Amino acid sequence: MELLACKKFERKTVDKQPVVVHIAGQRYVVRTDADEAYVQSLAGFVNDQIVDIQNSSKPVSLQSVAILVALNIADDLFRERQKRTELKSKIRDKSKAIIAYLDKEAKASFQNQK
Predict the structure, then answer these.
(1) Left if phi > 0, otherwise alpha if psi is -120 to 50, otherwise beta: which for 59?
(2) Which residues pair with 97 in a beta bridge?
(3) More confident position, 46 or 8
(4) Which residue(s) pair with 2 in the sheet?
(5) Rounded to the nearest 5 degrees, what angle is found at the Cα of 102, between the Cα atoms of 99 and 95?
(6) How confident is the model at residue 114 (pLDDT cuts 50, 70, 90)?
(7) DSSP-derived secondary structure letter, 101
(8) Tens of pLDDT along 55-113?
């Protein structure tokens, strides 16, 4: 996804369509190859986070609220990545244990057939 508002970062894109989203009362045009409903749901999520912070704190600038939202989303992302890493490790360990068990049983079965 690319924001059209960020001209210096804009790249020539093929098959990317503009999607208009509204976040914190601001209109943004996003160029993306993602489904429009998905992009709208992302924008809605960010907007909801902004509203939550605005409602739970004293009045602060939109920039400060945006930074807090970015930190919250980054925290969620990092925690989910850590959970995924831990889950992958558990799956790897269980897989090794299952393979070792199957190898042991196969060898035992082979020995019993002799």
Answers:
(1) beta
(2) none
(3) 46
(4) 31
(5) 25
(6) low
(7) H
(8) 998 889 999 999 999 999 999 999 999 999 999 999 999 999 999 999 999 998 888 88
Place of tokens 């269980």: 94
CB 3 within 8 A of CB 16: no
Residue 55: predicted pLDDT:
93
Report the distance separating Cα 103 and Cα 25, nearest Å: 62
DSSP string, 30-94: EEESS-HHHHHHHHHHHHHHHHHHHHHSS---HHHHHHHHHHHHHHHHHHHHHHHHHHHHHHHHH
Contact 5, 11 (CB under 8 A): no
Q: What is the pLDDT of residues 2-28, one digit of tens each?
A: 555 444 445 555 689 999 999 999 999
- Containing H/E element for 2? strand 2-3
- Helices 36-56 + 62-113 axis angle, to 10: 120
The label of the residue with tokens 């897989």 reads 95
Say how far apart CA 16 and CA 110 lie, in whole Å.
59
